[in-house]
TrEMBL record:
Cofactor: FAD
EC supergroup of this enzyme: oxidoreductase
Protein name: Peroxisomal sarcosine oxidase
One Pfam family hit: DAO
Source species: Labrus bergylta
Family the entry assigns: Belongs to the MSOX/MTOX family.
GO cellular component terms, semicolon-separated: peroxisome
Documented EC number(s): 1.5.3.1, 1.5.3.7
Residue stretches making up the FAD dependent oxidoreductase domain: 8-362
Keywords in alphabetical order: FAD, Flavoprotein, Oxidoreductase
UniProt KW Oxidoreductase keyword: yes
Any GO BP annotation: L-lysine catabolic process to acetyl-CoA via L-pipecolate
Tagged with keyword Repeat: no
Amino acid sequence: MSAEAVYDCIVIGAGVQGSFTAYQLAKKGKKTLLLEQFVLPHTRGSSHGQTRIIRKAYDEDFYAHMLDECYELWAQLEKEAGVRLYRQTGLLVIGPENSRYYELVKTTLKKNKVPMVVLTRDNFSQHIPHVILDEGHGAVVEVPAGILYADRALKTAQGQFQKLGGVIRDKEMVTDIKPGPVVTVVTSSGAYQAKSVVITAGPWANRLLAHTGLELPLEVAKINVCYWKEKVPGSYDIEKRFPCFIQTECKESKEHIYGLPSNEYPGLMKICYHAGSVVDPDHRDQQTDRSDIDILQRYVARCLPGLEPKPAVVESCLYTLTPDRHFVLDCHPTYSNIVIGAGFSGHGFKFGPIIGKLLSELSLGEVPSYDLSPFRIRRFHGNTKSAL
Ligand SMILES: Cc1cc2nc3c(=O)[nH]c(=O)nc-3n(C[C@H](O)[C@H](O)[C@H](O)COP(=O)(O)OP(=O)(O)OC[C@H]3O[C@@H](n4cnc5c(N)ncnc54)[C@H](O)[C@@H]3O)c2cc1C
């Protein structure tokens, strides 16, 4: 056991949520240790890659509500660190005009006074060239939405954390957690103690929670991150103000399909299917199911005729899904000084700064800034396993 003094908090997992939690704790002057199993940066979890979408187009009001402060916190971090993390592109939402989800998204945007433009069938192609709008589908653009530079955001949050005196130990896997008034965290190279622990282990959450006798209903899915080549270079480019998009449902699928304009790989547009096949995070590449890519190929060929209908590049990323697709932000049911941030269900990146704030509040025993009832463990109604 190392002779370190007791930390105020140990955060386990340096993805977006753990990095922002550690940063928030350090900002509050708390002595914080951030542990990561892999050498940083890495591409094995959920937070790697260059871009993510930030949007308020949600069917639930509470997400849009949290995003007000989220945009402010992203801007604050940009200012503090002197880096650009957000770029406005707008978000095009397309869906069957009378579907419940599409209607709810429009209602959320309206209710939250988000600047938006409703496109008509007549003016759609003038605003959004090279996209086919299906018969019976509506289209609305959420104007302030955009992209976040994901890899850069992680590096920035971790860098600011270190500047504030925070300690990061990467290539150090947590192998055991011993609960108590002071929690002991055992790793591949030592043991540390803290008044509280935050578990933000992404796809490995249940593996860590097993040490505390808890199992959450989480499912890990592999997402094929597909990049599609423009037939005419620049047609879907960020510089030409092509927006991000979400197709809520279409002939090919009931599940969302989403895309980001050509940016990180010039001439290649990122388009993904918002679902994947179940996988063990330690054997990610053994999952070779391509049925999602088949769906995307059919959709791209029909609705995005300016793209080659076969992906030029396919990368991998993991979703950790809860049954209702809402996050888990809560204290452990048995040990109140063990806090859990998990199940970000493929839409958690944009919330990083606010999740960090909320998890830091929980770990310090403070009243959380938002109503966390949608994110509580008890909503699973016994669909959790406790060995204790
Ligand atoms: C393809 C794709 C597209 C997405 N698009 C969007 C989007 O447009 N907008 C959006 O808001 N969100 C998006 N998301 C979701 C978002 O990226 C995730 O919700 C978020 O990255 C989850 O972060 P995390 O910190 O929970 O997990 P992770 O990033 O996986 O971090 C967990 C970390 O814990 C570490 N760890 C695990 N076990 C241990 C251990 N025993 N010891 C030490 N360390 C450990 C892991 O190595 C890992 O680094 C997308 C996700 C994917 C995969």
